[in-house]
Amino acid sequence: MATPLQVHSNYTTFASNHGKVWRATPHGQQAVVMRTDTVRPALSRGRYRHVIALVVTGDAVSLDIDVVRQVFGPRAAAESDVAGQYEVVLCGEQSELAPLNAMTTADTVVLPGVENPLTPRSPALIDALRAAYAGGARMVGFGSGVFLLGYAGVLDGRRATTHWKYAREFRELFPSVRLEGDHTFVDDERVHTGGGMLSGVDLALHLLAMDVGRARAEAVGRAVIAAPWRGDARARRADDREPMAPVMAWLREHLHEPLSLAKVAEESFISERSLVRKFRAATGTTIFDWVNRERIDRAKLLLETTDHPVAEIAGMVGFGSPETLRRNFQRHVGTTARSYRHKFRHAAARAARG
Predict the structure, then answer these.
(1) Range(s) within the chain of domains with CATH label 1.10.10.60
(2) What CATH number should be reported for the domain whose range is 237-353?
(3) String of b and e for 270-301 (b: at least 16 CB within 10 Å)?
(4) Of 75, 86, 280, 326, whose CB neighbour count within 10 A is largest?
Protein backbone atom coordinates (compact mmCIF):
# COMPACT_ATOMS: atom_id res chain seq x y z
CA MET A 1 0.00 0.00 0.00
CA ALA A 2 1.32 3.41 -0.92
CA THR A 3 1.83 6.04 1.74
CA PRO A 4 -0.63 8.99 1.77
CA LEU A 5 1.12 12.27 1.02
CA GLN A 6 -1.51 14.97 0.89
CA VAL A 7 -5.21 15.13 1.68
CA HIS A 8 -7.61 17.47 -0.16
CA SER A 9 -11.35 17.94 0.12
CA ASN A 10 -11.98 15.86 -3.01
CA TYR A 11 -9.15 13.34 -3.13
CA THR A 12 -6.10 11.88 -1.46
CA THR A 13 -2.72 11.69 -3.22
CA PHE A 14 -0.52 8.60 -2.81
CA ALA A 15 3.03 7.75 -3.83
CA SER A 16 3.61 4.36 -5.42
CA ASN A 17 6.87 2.47 -5.73
CA HIS A 18 6.84 2.66 -9.54
CA GLY A 19 8.21 6.16 -10.00
CA LYS A 20 4.75 7.74 -10.16
CA VAL A 21 2.46 9.75 -7.89
CA TRP A 22 -1.14 8.50 -7.98
CA ARG A 23 -4.34 10.35 -7.18
CA ALA A 24 -7.11 8.27 -5.61
CA THR A 25 -10.59 9.84 -5.75
CA PRO A 26 -13.36 9.11 -3.25
CA HIS A 27 -14.79 6.66 -5.82
CA GLY A 28 -11.63 4.57 -5.87
CA GLN A 29 -10.27 5.52 -9.33
CA GLN A 30 -6.57 6.12 -9.73
CA ALA A 31 -4.83 8.54 -12.07
CA VAL A 32 -1.17 9.41 -12.47
CA VAL A 33 -0.57 12.93 -11.23
CA MET A 34 3.12 13.05 -12.18
CA ARG A 35 6.25 10.94 -12.52
CA THR A 36 8.87 11.14 -9.80
CA ASP A 37 11.78 9.76 -11.85
CA THR A 38 11.98 12.61 -14.37
CA VAL A 39 14.18 15.69 -14.11
CA ARG A 40 12.54 18.04 -11.66
CA PRO A 41 12.95 21.73 -10.79
CA ALA A 42 14.39 22.50 -7.40
CA LEU A 43 11.95 22.36 -4.50
CA SER A 44 12.56 24.40 -1.39
CA ARG A 45 9.68 23.17 0.76
CA GLY A 46 9.40 19.43 0.28
CA ARG A 47 6.46 19.49 -2.15
CA TYR A 48 5.98 17.54 -5.36
CA ARG A 49 5.44 20.68 -7.42
CA HIS A 50 7.62 23.74 -7.82
CA VAL A 51 5.27 26.60 -6.88
CA ILE A 52 5.55 29.86 -8.82
CA ALA A 53 3.88 32.87 -7.23
CA LEU A 54 2.96 35.22 -10.09
CA VAL A 55 2.38 38.66 -8.57
CA VAL A 56 -0.48 40.46 -10.33
CA THR A 57 -0.71 44.17 -9.57
CA GLY A 58 -3.45 46.44 -10.90
CA ASP A 59 -1.18 47.69 -13.67
CA ALA A 60 0.54 44.39 -14.52
CA VAL A 61 1.40 43.78 -18.18
CA SER A 62 -0.95 41.03 -19.34
CA LEU A 63 1.51 39.68 -21.92
CA ASP A 64 4.03 38.83 -19.18
CA ILE A 65 1.34 37.05 -17.17
CA ASP A 66 0.46 34.97 -20.22
CA VAL A 67 4.11 34.11 -20.85
CA VAL A 68 4.53 32.59 -17.39
CA ARG A 69 1.29 30.65 -17.63
CA GLN A 70 2.23 29.34 -21.08
CA VAL A 71 5.82 28.34 -20.32
CA PHE A 72 5.16 26.75 -16.92
CA GLY A 73 1.53 25.69 -17.44
CA PRO A 74 -0.32 22.84 -19.18
CA ARG A 75 1.01 23.79 -22.63
CA ALA A 76 4.54 23.05 -21.48
CA ALA A 77 3.40 19.75 -19.99
CA ALA A 78 1.96 18.70 -23.34
CA GLU A 79 5.25 19.30 -25.14
CA SER A 80 7.71 17.62 -22.78
CA ASP A 81 7.90 15.48 -19.66
CA VAL A 82 7.51 18.42 -17.27
CA ALA A 83 3.86 17.51 -16.66
CA GLY A 84 2.74 18.35 -13.14
CA GLN A 85 6.09 19.75 -12.06
CA TYR A 86 4.97 23.38 -11.74
CA GLU A 87 2.05 25.10 -10.12
CA VAL A 88 1.47 28.76 -11.03
CA VAL A 89 -0.41 30.72 -8.35
CA LEU A 90 -1.67 34.22 -9.19
CA CYS A 91 -1.43 36.37 -6.09
CA GLY A 92 -2.04 40.01 -5.32
CA GLU A 93 -4.13 42.49 -3.39
CA GLN A 94 -7.32 41.99 -5.41
CA SER A 95 -9.98 39.80 -3.84
CA GLU A 96 -10.09 37.32 -6.74
CA LEU A 97 -6.39 36.46 -6.34
CA ALA A 98 -4.51 34.41 -3.79
CA PRO A 99 -3.27 36.61 -0.93
CA LEU A 100 0.16 38.18 -1.03
CA ASN A 101 1.47 35.81 1.61
CA ALA A 102 1.38 33.07 -1.06
CA MET A 103 4.78 34.47 -2.02
CA THR A 104 6.29 33.49 1.30
CA THR A 105 5.77 29.77 0.64
CA ALA A 106 6.61 29.81 -3.09
CA ASP A 107 9.75 28.37 -4.68
CA THR A 108 9.85 31.14 -7.30
CA VAL A 109 8.30 34.62 -7.26
CA VAL A 110 7.72 36.31 -10.63
CA LEU A 111 6.94 40.00 -11.07
CA PRO A 112 5.56 40.78 -14.53
CA GLY A 113 6.11 44.19 -16.07
CA VAL A 114 4.01 47.07 -14.77
CA GLU A 115 2.60 50.06 -16.63
CA ASN A 116 3.67 52.56 -13.96
CA PRO A 117 7.00 51.46 -12.49
CA LEU A 118 7.58 54.80 -10.77
CA THR A 119 4.35 54.58 -8.78
CA PRO A 120 4.90 53.80 -5.07
CA ARG A 121 3.72 50.35 -4.02
CA SER A 122 1.82 49.32 -0.92
CA PRO A 123 3.74 48.38 2.23
CA ALA A 124 1.95 45.02 2.18
CA LEU A 125 3.35 44.17 -1.25
CA ILE A 126 6.87 45.31 -0.37
CA ASP A 127 6.82 43.38 2.91
CA ALA A 128 5.65 40.21 1.14
CA LEU A 129 8.45 40.50 -1.42
CA ARG A 130 11.01 40.95 1.34
CA ALA A 131 9.64 37.96 3.23
CA ALA A 132 9.75 35.77 0.13
CA TYR A 133 13.34 36.78 -0.55
CA ALA A 134 14.37 36.22 3.06
CA GLY A 135 12.72 32.81 2.90
CA GLY A 136 14.95 31.68 0.04
CA ALA A 137 12.62 32.03 -2.96
CA ARG A 138 14.03 32.51 -6.45
CA MET A 139 13.11 36.11 -7.36
CA VAL A 140 12.32 37.07 -10.96
CA GLY A 141 11.38 40.41 -12.51
CA PHE A 142 10.30 41.09 -16.10
CA GLY A 143 11.01 44.51 -17.63
CA SER A 144 9.56 47.35 -15.60
CA GLY A 145 8.51 44.86 -12.92
CA VAL A 146 12.16 44.83 -11.86
CA PHE A 147 11.48 48.16 -10.14
CA LEU A 148 9.37 46.33 -7.54
CA LEU A 149 12.33 44.13 -6.67
CA GLY A 150 14.34 47.32 -6.28
CA TYR A 151 11.76 48.88 -3.96
CA ALA A 152 11.91 45.76 -1.78
CA GLY A 153 15.72 45.94 -1.53
CA VAL A 154 16.17 42.60 -3.28
CA LEU A 155 18.57 44.10 -5.82
CA ASP A 156 20.87 45.94 -3.43
CA GLY A 157 24.47 45.25 -4.39
CA ARG A 158 23.44 43.05 -7.32
CA ARG A 159 23.56 43.15 -11.12
CA ALA A 160 20.27 43.65 -12.93
CA THR A 161 18.59 44.86 -16.10
CA THR A 162 15.22 46.49 -16.78
CA HIS A 163 13.24 48.08 -19.59
CA TRP A 164 15.54 50.44 -21.48
CA LYS A 165 12.91 53.21 -21.37
CA TYR A 166 13.35 53.56 -17.60
CA ALA A 167 17.12 53.11 -17.33
CA ARG A 168 17.81 56.66 -16.14
CA GLU A 169 15.13 56.56 -13.45
CA PHE A 170 16.30 53.10 -12.37
CA ARG A 171 19.85 54.32 -11.84
CA GLU A 172 18.62 57.30 -9.83
CA LEU A 173 16.33 55.22 -7.60
CA PHE A 174 18.71 52.30 -7.04
CA PRO A 175 22.31 53.57 -7.08
CA SER A 176 23.63 50.43 -5.37
CA VAL A 177 22.46 48.23 -8.26
CA ARG A 178 24.76 47.61 -11.22
CA LEU A 179 22.48 48.13 -14.21
CA GLU A 180 23.47 46.07 -17.27
CA GLY A 181 21.08 47.69 -19.70
CA ASP A 182 22.35 46.00 -22.87
CA HIS A 183 21.29 42.50 -21.80
CA THR A 184 18.03 40.74 -22.43
CA PHE A 185 18.29 39.14 -19.00
CA VAL A 186 20.74 39.02 -16.12
CA ASP A 187 21.31 36.23 -13.58
CA ASP A 188 22.73 37.10 -10.19
CA GLU A 189 22.57 33.98 -8.02
CA ARG A 190 18.85 33.44 -7.26
CA VAL A 191 17.75 36.85 -8.57
CA HIS A 192 16.90 37.03 -12.28
CA THR A 193 15.88 40.16 -14.17
CA GLY A 194 14.71 40.77 -17.75
CA GLY A 195 14.84 43.80 -20.01
CA GLY A 196 12.48 44.89 -22.77
CA MET A 197 8.92 43.93 -23.61
CA LEU A 198 9.61 40.49 -25.11
CA SER A 199 12.49 39.55 -22.80
CA GLY A 200 10.03 37.74 -20.53
CA VAL A 201 9.88 34.89 -23.04
CA ASP A 202 13.67 34.54 -23.08
CA LEU A 203 13.94 34.73 -19.31
CA ALA A 204 11.09 32.28 -18.65
CA LEU A 205 12.60 29.70 -21.02
CA HIS A 206 16.04 30.31 -19.53
CA LEU A 207 14.66 29.51 -16.06
CA LEU A 208 12.96 26.40 -17.43
CA ALA A 209 16.26 25.29 -18.98
CA MET A 210 18.00 25.79 -15.64
CA ASP A 211 15.37 23.56 -14.02
CA VAL A 212 14.81 20.73 -16.49
CA GLY A 213 17.48 21.04 -19.19
CA ARG A 214 17.90 22.93 -22.42
CA ALA A 215 16.42 20.25 -24.70
CA ARG A 216 13.10 20.29 -22.83
CA ALA A 217 13.09 24.08 -22.68
CA GLU A 218 13.64 24.28 -26.43
CA ALA A 219 10.70 21.90 -26.99
CA VAL A 220 8.49 24.15 -24.89
CA GLY A 221 9.85 27.24 -26.64
CA ARG A 222 8.92 25.86 -30.05
CA ALA A 223 5.39 25.24 -28.81
CA VAL A 224 4.64 28.50 -27.07
CA ILE A 225 6.35 31.08 -29.29
CA ALA A 226 6.47 31.49 -33.06
CA ALA A 227 10.10 32.62 -33.39
CA PRO A 228 13.03 30.43 -32.28
CA TRP A 229 14.07 30.90 -28.68
CA ARG A 230 17.11 33.14 -28.59
CA GLY A 231 18.63 31.44 -25.57
CA ASP A 232 21.23 33.32 -23.58
CA ALA A 233 21.39 37.07 -23.20
CA ARG A 234 21.18 39.14 -26.34
CA ALA A 235 20.99 42.89 -26.72
CA ARG A 236 17.45 44.00 -27.38
CA ARG A 237 18.06 46.76 -29.93
CA ALA A 238 16.91 45.25 -33.23
CA ASP A 239 18.51 47.94 -35.38
CA ASP A 240 21.90 47.12 -33.85
CA ARG A 241 21.39 43.37 -33.91
CA GLU A 242 20.40 43.02 -37.58
CA PRO A 243 23.87 43.70 -39.08
CA MET A 244 25.37 41.06 -36.80
CA ALA A 245 22.84 38.33 -37.65
CA PRO A 246 24.97 36.92 -40.52
CA VAL A 247 28.05 36.97 -38.28
CA MET A 248 26.22 35.04 -35.57
CA ALA A 249 24.92 32.54 -38.11
CA TRP A 250 28.43 31.97 -39.49
CA LEU A 251 29.84 31.56 -35.99
CA ARG A 252 27.20 28.94 -35.11
CA GLU A 253 28.09 26.98 -38.26
CA HIS A 254 31.78 27.02 -37.34
CA LEU A 255 31.70 26.60 -33.56
CA HIS A 256 33.61 23.32 -33.88
CA GLU A 257 36.56 25.08 -35.55
CA PRO A 258 39.37 27.13 -33.98
CA LEU A 259 38.23 30.75 -34.17
CA SER A 260 40.29 33.93 -34.08
CA LEU A 261 39.20 37.56 -34.26
CA ALA A 262 41.11 37.96 -37.52
CA LYS A 263 39.31 35.00 -39.09
CA VAL A 264 35.87 36.18 -38.02
CA ALA A 265 36.58 39.70 -39.27
CA GLU A 266 37.79 38.35 -42.62
CA GLU A 267 34.66 36.26 -43.06
CA SER A 268 32.50 39.23 -42.07
CA PHE A 269 34.20 41.68 -44.46
CA ILE A 270 34.72 44.16 -41.64
CA SER A 271 37.72 45.46 -39.71
CA GLU A 272 38.55 43.84 -36.40
CA ARG A 273 37.97 47.08 -34.50
CA SER A 274 34.55 47.64 -36.08
CA LEU A 275 33.60 44.02 -35.53
CA VAL A 276 34.43 44.21 -31.82
CA ARG A 277 32.46 47.42 -31.39
CA LYS A 278 29.40 46.36 -33.39
CA PHE A 279 29.25 42.89 -31.87
CA ARG A 280 29.25 44.27 -28.34
CA ALA A 281 26.55 46.79 -29.30
CA ALA A 282 24.43 43.97 -30.70
CA THR A 283 24.92 41.38 -27.96
CA GLY A 284 26.14 43.19 -24.88
CA THR A 285 29.20 40.94 -24.70
CA THR A 286 32.43 40.12 -26.51
CA ILE A 287 32.63 37.78 -29.48
CA PHE A 288 34.46 35.07 -27.59
CA ASP A 289 32.27 35.22 -24.51
CA TRP A 290 29.32 34.81 -26.89
CA VAL A 291 31.04 31.92 -28.67
CA ASN A 292 31.76 30.20 -25.35
CA ARG A 293 28.07 30.44 -24.35
CA GLU A 294 27.00 29.01 -27.70
CA ARG A 295 29.48 26.14 -27.31
CA ILE A 296 28.17 25.44 -23.82
CA ASP A 297 24.58 25.42 -25.13
CA ARG A 298 25.55 22.95 -27.85
CA ALA A 299 27.40 20.81 -25.33
CA LYS A 300 24.28 20.74 -23.13
CA LEU A 301 22.19 19.42 -26.00
CA LEU A 302 24.74 16.75 -26.86
CA LEU A 303 25.01 15.69 -23.23
CA GLU A 304 21.23 15.44 -22.95
CA THR A 305 20.51 13.74 -26.28
CA THR A 306 23.55 11.62 -27.20
CA ASP A 307 25.90 9.06 -25.67
CA HIS A 308 29.10 10.68 -26.99
CA PRO A 309 31.90 10.71 -24.40
CA VAL A 310 32.61 14.09 -22.83
CA ALA A 311 36.02 14.20 -24.50
CA GLU A 312 34.41 13.83 -27.94
CA ILE A 313 31.80 16.46 -27.16
CA ALA A 314 34.58 18.89 -26.22
CA GLY A 315 35.99 18.57 -29.74
CA MET A 316 32.57 18.62 -31.43
CA VAL A 317 31.66 21.99 -29.92
CA GLY A 318 35.06 23.60 -30.45
CA PHE A 319 36.60 23.56 -26.97
CA GLY A 320 39.45 21.38 -28.16
CA SER A 321 40.12 19.57 -24.91
CA PRO A 322 38.07 18.08 -22.07
CA GLU A 323 39.82 20.41 -19.63
CA THR A 324 38.68 23.51 -21.54
CA LEU A 325 35.13 22.17 -21.63
CA ARG A 326 35.29 21.36 -17.92
CA ARG A 327 36.49 24.84 -16.99
CA ASN A 328 33.90 26.66 -19.12
CA PHE A 329 31.07 24.33 -18.16
CA GLN A 330 31.77 24.84 -14.47
CA ARG A 331 31.91 28.60 -14.97
CA HIS A 332 28.67 28.94 -16.95
CA VAL A 333 26.55 26.07 -15.61
CA GLY A 334 27.89 25.66 -12.10
CA THR A 335 28.42 21.90 -12.35
CA THR A 336 30.45 19.35 -14.30
CA ALA A 337 29.48 18.01 -17.71
CA ARG A 338 29.17 14.48 -16.29
CA SER A 339 26.91 15.63 -13.46
CA TYR A 340 24.78 17.56 -15.93
CA ARG A 341 24.41 14.47 -18.12
CA HIS A 342 23.56 12.29 -15.13
CA LYS A 343 20.81 14.70 -14.08
CA PHE A 344 19.19 15.33 -17.46
CA ARG A 345 20.13 12.49 -19.81
CA HIS A 346 19.56 9.62 -17.39
CA ALA A 347 16.28 10.97 -16.07
CA ALA A 348 15.03 11.43 -19.63
CA ALA A 349 15.94 7.81 -20.42
CA ARG A 350 14.01 6.56 -17.40
CA ALA A 351 10.99 8.62 -18.43
CA ALA A 352 11.18 7.23 -21.99
CA ARG A 353 11.17 3.67 -20.68
CA GLY A 354 7.91 4.52 -18.89
Answers:
(1) 237-353
(2) 1.10.10.60
(3) beeeebbebbbbbbbbebeebbbbbbbbbbbe
(4) 86
